[in-house]
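Listing S7. Sequence submitted for prediction.
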Amino acid sequence: MSPESEVDLPGEALPGTLPEALRTELVAFRRDLHMHPELGNQEFRTTAAIKARLEKAGLEPRVLAMGTGLVCDIGVPLDGDTTAAPSGMLALRADIDALPIPDAKTECAYRSTVPDRAHACGHDVHTTVVLGAGLVLAELHRQGRLPHPVRLLFQPAEEVLPGGAADAIECGVLDGVARIIAVHCDPRVDAGRIGLRSGAITSACDRLEIALDGPGGHTARPHLTTDLVTAVARVVTDVPALVARRVDTRSGLAVTWGRIESGHAPNVIPQHAELSGTVRCLDLDAWRQAPDIVHAAIDEVANLHRAKSEITYVRGVPPVVNDAAVTELLRDAMTVRRGATSVESTDQSLGGEDFSWYLERVPGAMARLGVRAPGERTVRDLHQGDFDVDEHAITVGVELFTAAALITP
């Protein structure tokens, strides 16, 4: 590591706070990402910015084969044997892509400069947190104070079903990894705190597209046609009810519609209709059964109304199921940093997250990173154009990941 890129750390064995210069740099880095959002598998500028900063710190990041995203190992033995440490590597994962929505923060100096693109899910924060933790851990390794190797993983295309995690895994990002951790911004939790949950913390999320067809006709003679509008209406109302009754209700299997299109004139029964929506599920086993259950329910309703159905079921992501031991590692790390009161319990969300694909291979856990300014009354949500964060959360995330790396057994 070159002297100009060293991170000046406090002298104690487990640094409790970040130096002001690093905090300032990380906030500026996050704001730069926020101003230049890139969609999944198009994150070339973002990847280049991360790579340049890691290289400045004397590290050797590797861009993934897809051309965006990268990994960077810290403390790996010179012979490349990533299994030399007793428990293997701890991986810190960030997602780097943005959303195809406009930035609605009209008074914000660092609002998006790209039309119809915004970091409205906090991925710019996730990226900055892992970068910051990497800079701190690299300096600790230089000082001989990093007990185990750590891998930084900056993953592209989290927002693109079935998620960029699957492609990253194909690139070997989990080779030598024993545990993996991540954070996700939560606007319901105050900055300075995290939310934890052992077991499932998100839901499965799939995409559903349906085309219904039949001979149309005049609205004066619906009995001579396939009354497609009625068929669509019954699919919309009956399919979710049928699906919910064909699994244990505790699994939370739910079909929700987001788009319906059919017809052009008030007195013409159309020949074609389209519906699209999502299938969400809280339970991993029920998610695996969901395609067959949903297909059967749609066919049943469509056949009843003499409509021909064409179903496209796009597999998304399973639930993120936090490993109990890794969840406790995050709890211990946060407690060391900020005390037991900085950790709160969190509910299982119906949102989807492709971090789940990593947990199909290795134990891991995701924490909810509080980003709400303490005392703020404005109710914000993810995937909204006005989404923003209290940037103190960046420091908290870096400290959490740093402590987790230092106390990993």
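Caption to Listing S7: primary sequence and predicted structure tokens for the chain studied. The chain has two domains: 3-202+320-407, 204-317. The CA atoms of residues 39 and 98 lie 5 Å apart.
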